[in-house]
Structures are given as structure tokens and as C-alpha cells.
Amino acid sequence: MSANYSLLCYTREATGREEANNEDIAYSMHLALRSGDDAEWQPLNENYGIFFAAGVPIAAATAESRRACTAAARFAADPFDAPRPATDAVAHGVVMPGMDITLKSLKNPFLFRLADGRFAIAATRTARGGEPDGSERSAFLLAISDDLTAFDQRGLVLLRTTGGVNRPSVSFDAADACYVVSWTGDDGKARTARTADIVAAAGSGRPLDVVESASSQPLRQTGDCGIPNAVVGNSIAISEPEAERLIERFGRIRNTGTSVPAQRIDAGLHGEDARNAVLALAATRAELAYSDGSQATRAVDWNMAQLEAISQEASEGTLKAGQTRTVEGVIRQSVYPVPFAVERADPSVFAWKFNGKPMFMFIATDDTDGNCVDPNDGRTHMPLRIADSIEALSDAAGGRAKEIDLLACGDLNSEDRPMTGCFWAPELHVIGGKLSVLFMPCFDGPRVNPDGTPNDRAGKPDMWTGSCHIMQLKQHSDGTDFDPREPENWTVPEPILDPDGETLNPIQRISLDMTVLCDSGRWYYAWQQVGSIWIASFDPARPARLTSKPKQIVVPEFAWDNMIAEGPNAIVHDGTIFLIYSGSLVGIDYTTGLVTAPAGQGADLTDASVWTKLDYPLQKSGMYNGRWQLGTGHGMWSHDEDGNLIYVFHNAEYEHGRYGGRDAQVRRVHWSKEGMPILDMQTAEELDPDYAGVTMEVGFFDAD
């Protein structure tokens, strides 16, 4: 392959939500790559956006309230954002998504190099959905990036004009050591501005002087790039390492080979010792290699007849040092049913040992016909499945017929309040040595809302009355566990309260989607309220009471995660906490985002600045094994029978324009060479069928 690469930036014409290309996605910067030997542009990231304009906190948002607006951290007051009053959230030191933040989109992206070689992006900022927001009259958006996998949004570069800044472009004039900004005014005339430091100009509030230009803008690309619905920006040359970095992050990763390390047995062993040493080789795992240089291991179903024959020879002492034997096997790859569980949303699969006996549990929100508040004509319940394997939990294996109702409509919480609806997002965790369920029940609504207006859910389950609760499995006096399949063996659900015994959410009441993470000996809850992710510490010996005040740490700032960030769940991998969350409201536009933080370093995870946000979704709607999966999200990390990391999530049930709820899915996770979780690796990408068959060489040696 040629070492000469070109990179194209573009937006798309919106084609529809069913193709993961609504206006929120289309009006973002996409990237495509080609080499000198290939005339066709190859879209990266499945032709999905990579750089999205960050939302703008309103002027009334205080510095304290916008601490979790990390993508817009550098933004100054926006002269083009219409003034409006802040919500009550700002008075509590936080922002309300979609109200205290104005979401944005972009058009006309332009890629260029800074003088130091880094990438930069100039674009026309728009209102969410692509309509003008006023900034196009006299400004453009600027962002910089080391490698185009993460972005530093600097804000608007102001120009001393009100006559329109159409299709802005930027180049560096080495002779004059300055950046030249070029664009066309609404009158069709070309104009330019110059600055020694384009990065400092962004967000400075000082407009650049403008002059008319005799030339047009040669830096812009024109014509058809061959990508359907693409609206071309421009292309630049990039190096082979830069191209490889983009392919690693935004390309497809596939299995390229498998191998099994040679095994050695002491020829001096005899009898049962020799037999057991050989049979122990059944646990030998295969090593899988991938196109990005990453690796993984998988269990193998070895030919036990061959292993038995070798173990017999070894036990009889007929195998001598220097002799070898070969065992055949097939790499184990469970392909879980799709869907795994129909109309079961916010799913959680949990591997647990019941007094030493391994078992798998599945728990979820009942989302029959998309009604998750009071489904089944008000027969709301919390469905639990328990089996000896993950596959046995699935609908296809009869898991639905074996569901246990841990809770049902009308059960009382610890305050003697009847829980009449929701039972949302139950998650299983071990807290303080006890199997626990975190979830959100709701209650019948009061006659009027807190603001005095009539409540249309009065006397009926009202989601806005819901709050995070915990229930725990009881234990015998000797510390062994009661049977989790019996509802009476669980404690009465308790609401989780702040350190002062007050509700978690003083702004809207509702709190939900609670999960657990532990780092450097400190335990935390993370959950959703005020449309964003919050966190606080707690003592696992007293799990119904926080030990720190709740803090907002993740705010939906982009069009792709608009209005809400919910469903957090965390795992630690190679010294990093990976906290996934979901956004863009429930439905076919649902996406999965990611924030990361250092693990094991004693970082204060309640500080929003500790977390680094991915600028684009980690998981999104797309093709999986030849079929569309729309509205993927609200996932949970777990492990399968062989210890492999799996991802359990839901997608939208959507056919012929009808939304019918959410279905649970299960798939394995792959870690790329750079250490990113891959949530959409397809079956043949995970394991090429041509490499599924493996052999293991068993050699005998003289230990003396």
C-alpha cells in the first residue's frame, strides 16, 4: 500500500434516523481516507460523524455550574447566543441539559495544519439541525487536534464583518509567519484576514481585521467524492503513521490469525500425576491476532479423546523425553441469540457464586410495547432470571418463562410507600459483601406538581416521583447467602439519600440508573439526574446513605448525546476507568458515550475535570452481522463463563416505522491495540471461521 495518504473532511445530507444519519449526525465533520494507489475515498467510522460542535453554555450559567461542560471548557461568552434566564439548576451549581446549554451543529468543515504540524478545523457553526445561528455573519468555529481522535474546541474566531463568513478556510503563510483566513461574503466577494496566532484568536473576543481579496478560495474541494450524500469540505495530505492512527481508531478490526503456545509435560511423571498434568491442558487458551496489532485469548474445545489417549500413555510411562503429541481443537465462540431478551431494557448480566456455586443472573426493565412506567396493564414488576450459563438466560433458551418477579406493583419500600411503577434499570452488584440490586421504583403521582400545576399522572405511576433505591440479599448467621430466587429473601428496598438524609435530586426529584464503582479504596455511586451523570462516595457498610454531596460530572454537550446522559457503568482496564453512558433520549437515536479517568491513583472522581470525554459515540446505530441495530445503548460490562469481557445492552425494536420497545443484546468486547473497547465487533471479525480450528503440540521433557 502506498505511503501517500489523503484525508477528506465532509458533512452529509441528512437521510433519516433509520440510517443513523439524521440532522444531528449529518451536520458534523466526517472523515474519509485514500492512499495514492486507491482513487476511491474510504469513509472512516462507518461514514458517521467524528467531530461535533460543542454546545454553548448560556451567559447566565455560572463558572461553577458549567464545570462539567468539559467540551466547552474554553468557550467565552457567546455574542450570538440569545440571552435567556438560567434554570433552577444553575442556582444549585449545575446546568440543565438543553436549557442551560444551547446545542450546536456545523457545516463546511475545513482541515488544515497549524505551524507546528498539528491539525486544526475551521467550520461554520450552526444551530442544532443545521439552520443559521447568527455566528455565520461574522465568525467561524475553530478546534485543534493532535491526531483527529480527540479535539480541543477553542470557540469562535471573530471577524470584523457582518456581511457573512461563507465556507471559511485557513492556511499558514510561512513567509509572513501568519495565518490567512479566507472566505466569501454574502455579496459573493472574497475576503481575507490575517493573524499571527489563530489559536489565540479563537475565544479572544477581539475581531480580526478584514480586507477584500482579489482571488477566490482555491483551498476548498469541489466535485463529487463518491461518498453518498457527502457535502465535501477539503482534503489534505497526511503521513502513513497518521493514517494508521486513524485506521486503528475508526477502521474495522478483524481477526488475522490464531495460535496455541506449545505445552510441555515432565516425562518423569507417572500414574495419576501424569494423567492430571495432561488433562489440565484442556484449559489451554488460544491466542488470537488482529489487524491493528491487538491480541486476545479464547477458550478452546479440545478433542478430549485425544487428550485422554495422551494422558493414558503418560500415566503408563510410555512417553519419553523428546516425544511430542498433537491435540486438535476448535476455538470456543458463543454466538448469543439476537434478540437475547425481547422488551427487556437496561439489561444487566451478572456472574455470581451462590455459596460457592457459579450462577448467572439477568435483570432488566420491563419495556413491553415501549411502556416502561406501567406495562402489562399496570402489572409492573422486576423480572429476574437465573441460570447456569449466559445462553440459558435468553428467550430462545426459555429464560423468559422462568422469570422471577423480585418486586411487583404495590410492594412497599422502607418508608411504607407502595411502589406502583417503573422498577427501572435494575443492576446487580456485590456491595459490602452482599448481593445487591440498585434500581428506581416510582410511586403514584400527587394531585399537583411541585410548581402547583395539575399532575396528569395523579393516582397513577409517575416517573417523576422515582428515586434510586437499594435492596440486598439476606445472609445467614454464618455469612452464607439466602437463595436469591425467593423474593422474601431480599431486604425491603430503601431510598438512597444524601449525607444529610435528603433526596439526591433537589431540582427535579427523579434519580435513576444507579451503578457502582470502586477506586483506590473509595466506593462511589454514579447515576442519572437532571439529564446528566452524577457521582458521590458512599460507605458499602451503609449503602443507603452517601458520604459526599452529589456532583455533576457528565453533561450531554453534543447533538449526538443531546438532552440526556444516563445509564452509567464502569470497568477498569489497564489503569483506566472506562465509564460508559447513553444519550440522545430513548428510541432509535440512542447512542453510547464514554468518559475515562485514571484508576488506582487516588483521583477524586467527584471532580469533573478528572474525567476525559470522548467527542463522538463509542457505540452507535449500525450494521451488526448483516442487520441494522438501531438505538443501541444503556450497556453494562460483565463477564462470560470463560472470563471474557462481555457487553450487555439494549437496542430499539423498530420495524416498518413502528417503535415497539427495547430488546436486550449480549456480545463480547475486544480491546484494540491502543486500549479502546470495541463494542461492535462482528462474529467473523472476532474469529475468522478459517482460523477457528487449532492444534496444540504437547512435548515431553526430562526435568532432570
Write up this protein:
With 704 residues, the protein is mainly beta. It is built from 8 helices and 45 strands. Strands 25, 26, 27, 28 and 29 form a 5-stranded antiparallel sheet that branches. A 4-stranded antiparallel sheet has the order 3-2-1-14. Strands 6-7-8-9 form a 4-stranded antiparallel sheet. Helix 5 (271-279) runs antiparallel to helix 6. The relative contact order is 0.12. The mean pLDDT is 95.
> How many separate helices?
8
Average the pLDDT over all residues and give the rounded result: 95
Low-confidence stretches: none
Counting helices, strands and paired strands, the structural category is mainly beta
* Shape estimate: globular
Largest sheet: 5 strands, antiparallel
How many E strands? 45
Helical residue percent band: under 10%
SS strand fraction: 35-45%
Termini separation:
51 Å
- Report the radius of gyration as a whole number of Å: 28 Å
Pfam families: Glyco_hydro_43 (PF04616)
InterPro entries: Glyco_hydro_43, Glyco_hydro_beta-prop_sf
Family: Belongs to the glycosyl hydrolase 43 family.
Protein name: Family 43 glycosylhydrolase
